[in-house]
Structure formats: C-alpha cells, structure tokens
Amino acid sequence: MESTRQKKVARLVQKELAEIIMHHGGELAPGKMISVTTVRVSPDLSLAKTYISIFPSEGSAEVVEVLRNSVPRLRYELGQKVRNQLRIVPEIAFFVDDSNDYIDKISNLLKD
Fold first, then answer.
1. CA 92 distance to own-chain centroid
2. Reduced to 3 states, what is the DSSP secondary structure of residue 48?
3. Which of helix, strand or coil describes residue 22?
4. Which stretches does DSSP call E strand in 42-79?
5. Are 12 and 29 in contact (CB under 8 A)?
6. What is the pLDDT of residues 53-111, one digit of tens each?
7. Which residue segments constitute the domains of the chain, with CATH numbers given?
8. In angstroms, rounded to a whole number, what is the distance separating the alpha carbons of residues 38 and 55?
9. What's the pTM value of the predicted model, to 2 decimals?
10. 13-65 pLDDT per residue, tens
11. Count of H helices and E strands in the chain?
C-alpha cells in the first residue's frame, strides 16, 4: 500500500518528468511520442519506477534504451525543478507501459 507521501512524490515526479521528456522528445526519440503514464515511488523515496507509453510502438525497446542512457541528465533536470520540494531526487528507472498495445490486441480479437 502506497503512503500519501509516496503518492504525492510520484505525482510530482510524473508531472516534471513528462515536461522534461516533452521538451527533449525530439532528440531522445525523433518521430515518436513519449508519454509518462505512471510513476511508482519506493517507500524510502529513493527510486522512481517510471512507466512510459511510446507511440508508434515499433522500436520502443530502442527508445527505452536511449532514455536509460539519458538518466543522469534527466535526473539532473528533475532535481533542478523539484529541489525546493524534495531533499533527495529519486533514481529513475524506465519501463515500457504496453497496455495500449494490449487493448488494441484484445479489440482486434473481438472484431474477428
């Protein structure tokens, strides 16, 4: 069960990371749209598991790898934005949120 503090920090990190990724989206993944769908923060607030949705989903593994390689820069920018709200900026781990692909697959199966 997530505490209220975890939920608040997760929302803050999601909002700020979404802005940062939107700002750098062209250089991180040209021709793709990246959305931060969910952020889950560990109980000690040291790790933020960030789930991203990538459209179009082809080549999403490469986009995630680029994001993982850009973690130090993204974490620095996140720290600049949240330095007045958080004492410790959480480590960022990126994961693919493939729920939209799953929904498309189910709807295609139901059509047939």
1. 8
2. strand
3. helix
4. 47-55
5. no
6. 988 878 888 999 999 999 999 999 999 999 999 999 999 999 998 777 677 788 888 88
7. 4-111 (3.30.300.20)
8. 16
9. 0.85
10. 999 999 999 998 888 888 889 999 999 999 999 999 999 998 887 888 899 99
11. 4, 3
User: Is residue 81 within 8 Å of residue 17, measured between CB atoms?
Assistant: no
Over 90: is that where the pLDDT of 4 sits?
yes
**Which helix (H) or strand (E) element contains residue 66?**
helix 60-69
Query: Distance (Å, rounded) from C-alpha 29 to C-alpha 40?
Result: 23
30-51 burial code (b ≥16 CB/10 A, e <16)? eebebebeebbbeeebeebbbb
Q: Quick check: helix, strand or coil at residue 97?
A: coil
